[in-house]
């Protein structure tokens, strides 16, 4: 388990255990876990950076960076979340992966929709080539 999480696990153990269990369910790779924990924590405490920092023990800087990416793509607003339906049996894994890619700074969700779904734009590739 992440060291930062271990340090705060005692005081928030039940909620944090639920968040970690859910985050581990979605995060296929260990490298995806931290961003996933931030997104899942917001499901429980809202898009509130301070609460997420206190709950997870992650640095304010890290949570602020992830939060900024999620806000720019409108996955977080002042009081609400707009994640894809991660539990959808047909496309939930893809929707989670897109939300995670936003949190990690790989893509941004645009205002455009195609066939009722948001369009995402790569932040690391342009015209098929790395930026």
Detailed description of the structure:
With 131 residues, the protein is α+β, with helices and mostly antiparallel strands. The protein has one domain. The protein is 50% helix and 14% strand. It contains six helices and four strands, in the order ααααααββββ. The strands form two sheets. It has a two-stranded antiparallel ribbon with strand order 1-2. Strands 3-4 form a two-stranded antiparallel sheet. A hairpin with a 2-residue loop joins β3 and β4. α4 packs across α5. The longest helix is centred in the first third of the chain and has 14 residues. It is globular and about 45 Å long.
Order of helices and strands: HHHHHHEEEE
Number of strands: 4
Counted up, domains total: 1
* Number of helical elements: 6
Strand order of the largest sheet: 1-2
Largest sheet: 2 strands, antiparallel
Low-confidence stretches: none
Tell me the radius of gyration: 15 Å
Net shape: globular
**Assembly context of the chains:** single chain
SSE-based structural type: alpha+beta
Q: Please indicate the percent range of residues in DSSP E strands (runs of 2 or more).
A: 5-15%
Q: Could you estimate the helical fraction of the residues in percent?
A: 40-55%
What is the first-to-last residue Cα distance?
34 Å
Overall pLDDT: 89
How is the secondary structure organized here?
Layout: H1 3-8, H2 13-26, H3 33-45, H4 49-56, H5 60-72, H6 92-103, E1 107-114, E2 117-122, E3 125-126, E4 129-130
Antiparallel strand pairs: 1-2, 3-4
Helix pairs in contact: 2-3, 3-4, 4-5
Briefly, what is this?
This protein is α+β, with helices and mostly antiparallel strands and 131 residues long.
């Amino acid at each position: 388990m992440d060291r930062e999480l271990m340090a705060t696990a005692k005081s928030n153990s039940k909620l944090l255990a639920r968040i970690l269990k859910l985050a581990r369910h979605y995060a296929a790779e260990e490298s995806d876990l931290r961003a996933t924990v931030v997104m899942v924590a917001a499901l429980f405490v809202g898009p509130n950076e301070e609460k997420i920092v206190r709950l997870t023990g992650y640095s304010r800087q890290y949570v602020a960076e992830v939060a900024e990416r999620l806000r720019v793509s409108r996955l977080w607003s002042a009081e609400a979340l707009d994640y894809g339906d991660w539990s959808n049996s047909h496309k939930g894994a893809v929707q989670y992966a897109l939300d995670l890619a936003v949190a990690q700074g790989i893509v941004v969700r645009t205002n455009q929709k195609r066939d009722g779904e948001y369009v995402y734009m790569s932040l690391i590739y342009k015209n098929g080539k790395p930026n």
